[in-house]
Amino acid sequence: MKMLLAGGGTGGHLFPAVALAEQLLREQPEAEVLFVGTRQGIESRILPRLGFPLRTIDISGFVGKGLGAKLALLPRLIRSLAQSRAVVREFNPDVVVGVGGYAAGPVLAAARLLRYPALIHEQNARPGLTNRILAPWVDRVCLSFEDTAEAFKRVPTVVTGNPVRTALVHSHALGDGMPTLLIFGGSRGARAINDAVLDTLPELESMRGRIRLLHQTGDEDLERVRAGYRAVGWDDGGVVSFIEDMAAAYREAHLILCRAGATTLAELTACGRAAILVPYPYAAGDHQTDNARALAERGAALLLPQSELTPQRLGQLLRELLPDRELLTSMARSAHALGRRDAAEVLLQQCRQVARKK
């Protein structure tokens, strides 16, 4: 099989696509995979390191821009569509998979115009604009959440779950070492979480030297956060802009402080880790709060709204949770029970069914 995977921009879109590609090559080593994204997206940094080929197109997002800015982007949209047609013709895939993000739009449109089989994988409970617009043009939409089918009434839908990378699928018991808190706000970081952690460090003074912090800040916040750690006497050795080996980070972590995006929750439940979830309050339809509540109600996580993310509240939770290995183990088991570790395999089956139309 030759599979073209289009989209990215953020880890939430890219990493499920990587998981799907890994599953295909594991089942069919002679298969060919090609990613299409943009130079500014996370894919341009991650995919070469993973050994996956990437072609880029010249496109950026329309959402949140005024009419004038949108009109100014039209030449780029036309150019990106021409670039996408050339890539699709040259690669001649058996199936084109859109994984979300604005790079998926021109590629899926080109696949439609050239009559190639195509499907969409929607990671979130509330679909993004690109996928909503392009859904009628594809053969199938694969979903992470059953309720999302309401947004795609004019195209066949299948619930596959959200694939996670191979290294994250295997569960690991909590380690016996120093309690470790893993902090991240997504592949680009989260300013609100970074600020909250810096403000909370004085509240954790009694735990300094007895807990370990592994903190992914994003590129823009790295130096500021490192300086904030040093200013209050904390070791900044675990503060990095981006964690390359997330599987190792999850293995080392006893507790995770993070957002509640669909891909993040799929990873938490696949590997089985307790979490304090701080939903991004401006996500479409506040869907991250719904995501977080689903885990919290099952004892797998604690839901902490950003409006309540104060140093006192966060400090209290960390002082209570990090030393309590029994509670963390119970939460980790609950999270693991919610994981859908066959999602990549199920999604690949759907890709093969669609590819038969070629």
Automatic annotation (TrEMBL):
Enzyme class: transferase
Domain Glycosyltransferase family 28 N-terminal: residue ranges: 4-141
Pathway in which this enzyme or protein is active: Cell wall biogenesis; peptidoglycan biosynthesis
Keyword flag Cell division: yes
MF annotations from Gene Ontology: UDP-N-acetyl-D-glucosamine:N-acetylmuramoyl-L-alanyl-D-glutamyl-meso-2,6-diaminopimelyl-D-alanyl-D-alanine-diphosphoundecaprenol 4-beta-N-acetylglucosaminlytransferase activity; undecaprenyldiphospho-muramoylpentapeptide beta-N-acetylglucosaminyltransferase activity
Enzyme Commission number(s): 2.4.1.227
Gene3D superfamilies according to UniProt: Glycogen Phosphorylase B (3.40.50.2000)
Binding site for UDP-N-acetyl-alpha-D-glucosamine: T10, G11, G12, N124, R165, S187, I243, Q288
Role according to the record: Cell wall formation. Catalyzes the transfer of a GlcNAc subunit on undecaprenyl-pyrophosphoryl-MurNAc-pentapeptide (lipid intermediate I) to form undecaprenyl-pyrophosphoryl-MurNAc-(pentapeptide)GlcNAc (lipid intermediate II).
Stated family: Belongs to the glycosyltransferase 28 family. MurG subfamily.
Protein name: UDP-N-acetylglucosamine--N-acetylmuramyl-(pentapeptide) pyrophosphoryl-undecaprenol N-acetylglucosamine transferase
Source species of the chain: Geoalkalibacter subterraneus
Gene: murG
